[in-house]
Amino acid sequence: MNSHYDFIISGAGPVGLSLALALTHTSFSVCVLDQNATLEAVFDVDSDQRMLALSDRSIRFYKSLGIWDKMLPFATNISTVNVSEQDTHASINLFGHDYKADQLGVVISYAAVMQALIDALNNILVLKNKDKLNHDLTQHNNLTFINNIKIRSISSTCDNGCNENNNNNDHNNNQSKHLIELNNASSLTSSYLIAAEGAFSSIRQQIGIPFIQNDYDQVAVINIIKCEHPHENIAYERFSKHGPLALLPIDTHKMAVILTVKRDQQKFWENASSADFTTAILARFDERLGNLEVIGTQQIWSLTLIIPKYIVKNNIILIGNSAHALHPIAGQGLNLGLRDVIDFIDLLDEN
Questions:
Q1: Alpha carbon 234 to its chain's center
Q2: Where are the alpha helices (DSSP H) in 158-224?
Q3: What's the confidence (pLDDT) of residue 38?
Q4: d(CA 85, CA 71)
Q5: Spatial separation of the C-alpha atoms in residues 325 and 29, rounded to whole Å
Q6: Distances (CA, A) of 57 to 78, 101, 230
Q7: pTM score
């Protein structure tokens, strides 16, 4: 195994793996570290209920990586987004054709996105192993994946007079080398270290980047429902005095539901029935979708806003939820993470 890499990515979720896959199309050496994930994982793409909304820009990015065809069979188009406020006449419809797009985006499971990324990276690693015998495949010889590993400590040395606390975004004037000590007593070095670890990033904490944290005093109750009437590929955002509600279309008659409630109601929702869930939806929405049936398993997520004061420090870069953890009501979490990846690759191309 190499000991030095151009880029080390900590975190093998959708954002970290998307960046890794994009970097395999360059000549840079890349190493992905994760404390749990393995590229041998097999996701249940047919039954996973963790739903993501992908924007048109995110779809175009995955097309550029050559993996969108693997995701497409599991995606449901969003043709319209309806935003409204209860007990008022305030309502607006957003249509894909208004933005010269076939759709505003799609709804797709976390499992389908991860499986497509893992399959693509596995193919590259297989080709890399073949490269030992076939030197025509050197373009794939830049990726390493290490799982079941944690970063124990990070130390940085700077050339050109940069100082250890520099958070200057001008990487041309900030040439750093990072020594990364791992919990298996080994170490790696890198020119750039990328944190794609989620909202509570250990790298962000280790290098002392300050951040703003705001508790929304809310939890999200998430489930899948089946509707009597077809949803017609409309996604809904509904605001009410009880909190926001989002419904995302799946197939023809199913919807992923994000019901936001006050944190002091969490205990109730941990033991709530399916009837409680559908009653809460109807109390905020209306009966346009007909009778509702809960067909998923309920999940509850605590909601917190986290925004670092800066996202670059001595060529250590935060992306995805490590750089911005937001409320899920607009479904932009992964899209913002992929925007980070796209902008990062564009900056590499420019420089």
A1: 22
A2: 202-206
A3: 73
A4: 33
A5: 29
A6: 14, 10, 27
A7: 0.89
